[in-house]
Prior knowledge:
This protein is an all-alpha fold. It has one domain. It has helices at residues 23-95, 101-116, 133-144, 154-177, 184-215. Helix 4 packs antiparallel against helix 5 (184-215). The longest helix has 73 residues, at 23-95. Keywords: Membrane, Transmembrane, Transmembrane helix.
Amino acid sequence: MDQTDLFVPIKRCCTCSENLSTKRGQTIVLVKILVLAIIPIIVLVIQGGITIAEDNNQVVTQHKVEADIKFSVEIGLLVHNLQIERGTTSMYVSSGRMDILSVVQSKRTMTDISLNALGKWISLSTPGYFRSRNTFFQRLREYRNTFDSLNKSSSEVIQFYSYDMDVILDWLGSIITNAKYLTETSWQPLIAYHMILLSKEQTGMERALGGVYFAK
């Protein structure tokens, strides 16, 4: 057998050198062109989707921050009116002056307005009366009716209001601290506002105690 018979010609299949004169070759070249055109389009679509998702998350976070700031201000107003009601009520109880009762009643109205103006409720499981706005208001209203006959001491009044305000401020602080979505720029103003409310409560407590002392 001749050695040349050992070499069998092998037909190489290379898509890079397809014959454009054939239907198959034209199809392969068209597919290549489409693939080269589609790849950057896919990349742009993915990049655009990522950008849109990031922008959407930023918008959602911004709305959440705005809602929390608004609610913090509403809570601050409620605490403010509760502080005033606490001070006037303790002064009324300690002095026994009936002319202060009309002032107490007007402050109660302001507290009720700020309570009803809350966009949402804090919904705490403990204490039980914090479960809803209605249960909180019902307890507050029932307590108001217990000392119209001056059967309460000023220390009891201060303790009643102060405990509820401590619960509210502690809840607000925990919400701000645990807000993972907050950035440094949005977190700092909320923390600062919470600290102002805490210091304001300490001042309000001193004012209530001072008013009781000088009313005697």
